[in-house]
Write the structure tokens for this entry.
Amino acid sequence: MPTFHIAHIREQGVDLIIVPLDAAFGNRTSTSQRETTDALQRAAVSAGLAGTVVPVWPVSGGGMRFLAPHGFHPFFRSIDLGWVMANINRELICS
């Protein structure tokens, strides 16, 4: 079973489950990205974690991309993968 190291945080009064993924995630189709995000969300619910799953992944040049609700775009633009990795505080196991 795949295990993901996640940052389970509260931002603007909302629980977020930030899941760092590898760069290849960015090369997938939007349908495939959504399917993966949905599977991670189901795993989070099964694990009893509250919040919205937000996958993040590195891009060339040291940047980070994300799939987040529109209202959180400013927050995710203000952080980087270093911040995400420093806030890893749980593991999520997908079955």
Summary: The CA atoms of residues 35 and 53 lie 12 Å apart. The longest strand covers residues 3-11. The chain has a mean pLDDT of 96.
